[in-house]
Amino acid sequence: MFKAIKILTLSLLLSPPCYSFDWASSNIQVLYGGDFEFGDSDRTTFTVEHANGWKYGQNFFFVDVADRNDIGVEIYAEVYSYLSFNKLSGNNSSLGPIKDISLFAGLNISNKPENDQFKAYLAGFSFDLANEYFDYLQLDIAVYKSDDVNNKYGLQVTPVWSYPFAIGSAKFKFRGFTDFRTSNTNNSGNFHILAQPQVLLDIGNLAGLKSDSVYIGTEYSYWHNKFGIKGVNESVVQAMIIGFF
Which of 115, 171, 209, 239 is the most exposed place for a label (fewest CB within 10 A)? Predict the structure, then answer.
């Protein structure tokens, strides 16, 4: 089963679309916060995100880079590729709140630990729940297999959202994700949750410049049973600035 998941993941991720992008969105983030568990308590993180849509689906990736005093430069990345049933069939069908269903595969990878770099593979289904209130709203359900967990397959459930709202003339976004992972996704055998919601203020709009281009705000990161270690619950508030292009 692991070989099948790995082949599906790599085939979807490494086969580039043969068509130009229908749309693309990128951003760069700088975050600073404290109270991290393990290693440096205070950290600055640089993040690059990119998403695009093409004829048969969409792609997404992000890369986090942090220069830590304890382990040096840490790089963590996630990349996903989606094949849309609506786009493949040519029909714009929906089922209640579900606007589209996609088959997707993902790869999570880090340059740490140096002697046994982390890698995990995902494959599953994504449900597009977008409506007039959200920029995007989706639910991903995937089989999850980490390279360092032998003969075990877990489940990851991830809601992802971006909700725009306004208070007077100020424009905001409430965006983020939450990963729910079952006990088989780690060697400690514990269920874990990682949630990273962000509240962002559109300062470009307030300054009379381009809207939806530069935001400042905060990200709250909560990690229950961090790395699957029971009782290690990380709670971090980070100041951030994000620029879209």
Answer: 115
